[in-house]
Design brief:
The complex is a heterodimer of chains A (382) and B (165). By secondary structure, chain A is α/β, with parallel strands linked by helices. Chain A has a domain of 131 residues: Thiolase/Chalcone synthase (Peroxisomal Thiolase, Chain A, domain 1), CATH 3.40.47.10. Chain A contains 15 helices and 11 strands. In chain A, the strands form 2 sheets. Chain A has a 9-stranded mixed beta sheet with strand order 3-2-4-7-1-8-11-10-9. In chain A, strands 5-6 form a two-stranded antiparallel sheet. Chain A is globular, with a radius of gyration of 19 Å. The model of chain A has no long low-confidence stretch (mean pLDDT 97). Chain B has 165 residues and is mainly β. In chain B, the strands form 4 sheets. Chain B has a 5-stranded antiparallel beta sheet with strand order 10-9-8-11-12, with no helix packed on it. Chain B has a 3-stranded antiparallel beta sheet with strand order 4-3-7. In chain B, strands 1-2 form a two-stranded antiparallel ribbon. In chain B, strand 1 and strand 2 form a beta hairpin. The radius of gyration of chain B is 20 Å and the shape is globular. Chain B is built from 1 helix and 12 strands. The chains are: A alpha/beta (382), B mainly beta (165). At the A-B interface, helix 1 and helix 4 of A face helix 1 and strand 5 of B.
């Protein structure tokens, strides 16, 4: 049985608004081939478990991992799928290794948002009798959450827009990103209102792409690399499905997930001990709200934290140096991309968006509208 | 309309999600060759040598990238079939296939795996059997559109009789 689990390699697509030239197996194989080459590992010899992450309704196929079993090494071997955010796949893969069942697991998340319509797909996440029938989607639900959050804590439109300015500027330094640029707060607020208070530039764009990662037991990791990145803590937590069952300006499930992950990693003071955070800013305001939930600041202080400059690329706790989801990361892939970016930061291999020397990095992912389910990973050097 | 059964309510909702599926690099080549040249191309694993349909990026057994194309014969052997009495929907038209009809799996000469398609044959057990030799019937070139319906059906080769027993 392994005491610890390490990330020993990652590979990421160059994300793109549309990849019409590849199907999702071919898209997935691009990153699988790359991560195996990077680590020098062989499918048959080294990989003893394969896990994928996507969603049937996005893929347009039931049990949609049947579309990628060939490329992920699932043929006459064990292969499983996580139909939630990619952070959850890392947690699931780590547990498999900690159990002693597996030594070296290949993870791959993939989604082509361009092949369908996000509003229709997301409408199917809602209870058919109570909310689906209204036509609800993630953007409309997010707009309710944004409004509630802004009302309750005095968060301003400018502060939300500033998240976009920051992240799209960071994205210019990230070779995987496809949505980037120099946008002022005024530019963001003069983009069309999609669902007030949310503007077009405040919504993560439709994206196609895949990310692969290899997890290994402590013993195996040390055979593969001299400097693995350790998964020091992980946890996840669900909140209520119905929007009215929770105060949307709060983040009970994130707070609980973060607390448990920090305890596991021995983190007592997240504000001081965490060097960098990659989180799921599917909508601009979520970066502020999730910063609070992760304990980077107090309740209602997400806007002030941003204004202080602490979350900037060279700030005290940089948040989304990669550009985050706003820079273009597919749904379902988002969490594995967060974990991959956190890995690169710990390795010191994030290139131009490296934030400095990172000892502890945190990755957060969520599934469901308004962050119903959260997962938090703590990665570190030692 | 909402339907009341006694005092129970159920609400009809059609889950209608539109997709546009990329054929991908391998199936695009397969479909283009079929459409333009009437050829049926399979992919051969560089390691184990099996010749697969549909063409795809990786040989699942060997986990190596496929890149050798093989042209298959238009004739082959039926390895399984079924006479269908369900009016299954054709997903490209939304219209039902008219039962009874025959689905068959044919191993085209030169292939390791099969081509599944409709078999144009009288749907009775006397007329169709495992081991029957079949050929592929294509749409006339001018009518081909670049999807699997460019193969219209499978048809038995003439002059065969169902073996006794």
């Amino acid at each position: 049985m392994s005491d610890r689990v390490a990330i020993v390699g990652i590979a990421q697509s160059k994300f793109s608004a549309r990849r019409p030239e590849v199907n999702y197996a071919e898209m997935g194989y691009e990153v699988i081939e790359q991560v195996l080459n990077n680590t020098g590992l062989e499918m048959q010899k080294d990989i003893d478990n394969s896990i994928s992450c996507s969603h049937d309704i996005w893929d347009g196929q039931t049990i949609s991992d049947i579309g990628i079993t060939d490329v992920i090494g699932g043929h006459l071997r064990n292969e499983e799928k996580v139909a939630m955010d990619g952070t959850n796949m890392v947690l699931y893969g780590a547990i498999g290794i900690l159990s002693g069942e597996f030594e070296c697991s290949l993870l791959m998340a993939h989604t082509k948002m361009s092949q369908t319509n996000r509003n229709i797909v997301n409408n199917d996440a809602f209870d058919p009798i109570y909310t689906r029938i209204l036509g609800f989607d993630y953007t409309s639900a997010a707009a309710l959450q944004a409004k509630r959050y802004m009302y309750k804590y005095g968060i301003t439109q400018e502060q939300c827009a500033k998240v976009v300015s920051k992240n799209l500027a960071n994205a210019r330094l990230n070779p995987s990103a496809h949505n980037m640029g120099e946008y002022s707060v005024g530019d963001v607020l003069s983009s069309p209102v999609v669902a007030s208070p949310i503007h077009e530039l405040e919504i993560a764009p439709d994206t196609d792409g895949a990310v692969a990662m290899i997890l290994a037991s402590e013993k195996k990791a040390k055979e593969i690399t001299d400097n693995p990145v350790w998964i020091l803590g992980f946890s996840n937590c669900y909140d209520a499905h119905y929007l009215g069952d929770r105060d949307l300006a709060d983040y009970m499930s994130l707070q609980k997930a973060a607390q448990k992950a920090y305890n596991m990693a021995g983190i007592k003071n997240p504000r001081r001990e965490i060097d960098v955070v990659e989180l799921c800013d599917a909508f601009s305001y979520q970066e502020l709200l999730w910063s609070e939930g992760l304990g980077l600041c107090g309740q209602g202080e997400g806007g002030r934290l941003l204004d202080s400059g602490a979350t900037a690329l060279k700030g005290k706790i940089p948040v989304n140096p990669s550009g985050g989801l706003l820079s273009g990361v597919p749904e379902n892939v988002a969490g594995l991309n967060r974990a991959a970016e956190a890995y690169l930061q710990v390795k010191g291999e994030a290139g131009e968006h490296q934030v400095g020397n990172v000892r502890i990095a945190v990755a957060q992912g969520h599934s469901g509208f308004c962050g119903q389910h959260h997962c938090v990973l703590v990665l570190g050097k030692e | 309309m909402t339907k009341k059964e006694k005092e129970l309510i159920s609400i009809p909702i059609t889950v209608n999600v539109p997709y546009r599926f990329a054929a991908g690099k391998y199936m695009t080549k397969f479909l283009m060759e079929l459409k333009n040249n009437g050829k049926i191309l399979a992919i051969k694993c560089p390691k184990c040598g099996r010749v697969q349909l549909p063409p795809r990026v990786v040989c699942a057994q060997c986990h190596v990238k496929n890149d050798e194309w093989v042209e298959l014969s238009h004739e082959g052997t039926l390895v399984a079939f079924t006479i269908m009495y369900l009016p299954l929907t054709d997903p490209t038209t939304g219209k039902p296939h008219k039962p009874p009809f025959v689905y068959g799996s044919v191993r085209l000469d030169g292939a390791t795996s099969v081509l599944d398609h409709l078999v144009n044959i009288e749907p009775t057990m006397d007329k169709v059997w495992v081991g029957m030799r079949c050929k592929v019937v294509l749409r006339p070139q001018k009518d081909r559109i670049g999807d699997l319906s460019d193969i219209r059906c499978l048809e038995p080769l003439p002059g065969q009789k169902k073996p006794r027993g």
